[in-house]
């Protein structure tokens, strides 16, 4: 009897939750302790605020910016990253790529070397061993996807290696 009552309660409670949730998406992380506030989460970079996901969708634009600079993934599991150049400019003037560097790699040093590597779309052969994965260099309207695995927990940096872009176009992938 008690069991039956409890399950009825559970059903009612979950129905109530869903009906006031707005979108049909199931939010498993929200608990009743947090007040219901539908504010978009776009705070400045604070660690571990990014949702945990093995799918990374990244956009680069004609203003030389990525649309996000921090991601959280599970270590040891494949990550699928897609870069989309949402601008219209060609890759010889506003090309974008994503280069994921090994943990502890010096992003600034990498970028300095990348500037000299025009013939290989700014992927410096001499620093190949610093690279976990990278996309193609894209013009506006193009996109490219890569799959890679971050074996160890920690912070991995990424950048766009087109000359001058990494000042703004860089970020972190936190594997945990
Ligand atoms: Cu770029």
Strand order of the largest sheet: 2-8-7-4-5
Q: Return the structural class.
A: alpha/beta
pLDDT under 50 segments (min length 5)? 1-32, 38-46
Mean pLDDT: 83
Q: How large, in whole angstroms, is the Cα Rg?
A: 21 Å
CATH architecture group name of the domain at 55-175? Sandwich
Number of helices: 3
GO molecular function, one term: copper ion binding
Region (Disordered): 23-51
Keywords: Copper, Electron transport, Metal-binding, Signal, Transport
Signal peptide: 1-21
Outline the structure in words:
With 176 residues, the protein is α/β, with parallel strands linked by helices. The protein has a domain at 55-175: Sandwich (Immunoglobulin-like). The protein has helices at 2-20, 91-94, 107-114; strands at 55-60, 70-73, 78-85, 99-101, 131-134, 143-149, 154-159, 170-175. The strands form 2 sheets. The protein has a 5-stranded mixed sheet with strand order 2-8-7-4-5, with no helix packed on it. A 3-stranded mixed sheet has the order 1-3-6, with no helix packed on it. Copper (II) ion is lined by residues 60, 96, 160, 162, 165, 169. The site of copper (II) ion has 6 residues, from loops. Residues 59-174 form the Blue (type 1) copper domain.
């Amino acid at each position: 009897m008690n069991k039956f009552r409890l399950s009825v309660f559970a059903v009612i409670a979950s129905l109530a939750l869903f009906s006031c949730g707005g979108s049909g998406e199931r939010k498993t992380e929200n608990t009743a302790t947090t007040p219901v506030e539908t504010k978009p989460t776009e705070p400045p970079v604070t660690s571990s605020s990014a949702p945990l996901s093995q799918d990374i969708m990244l956009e680069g634009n004609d203003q030389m910016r990525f649309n996000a600079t921090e991601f959280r993934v599970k270590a040891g599991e494949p990550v699928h990253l897609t870069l989309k150049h949402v601008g219209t400019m060609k890759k010889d003037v506003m090309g974008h790529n994503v280069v994921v560097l090994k943990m502890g790699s010096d992003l600034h040093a990498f970028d300095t070397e990348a500037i000299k590597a025009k013939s290989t779309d700014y992927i410096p052969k001499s620093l190949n061993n610093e690279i976990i994965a990278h996309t193609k260099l894209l013009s506006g309207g193009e996109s490219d996807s890569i799959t890679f695995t971050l074996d160890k927990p920690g912070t991995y940096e990424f950048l766009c290696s087109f000359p001058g872009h990494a000042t703004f176009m860089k970020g972190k992938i936190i594997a945990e």
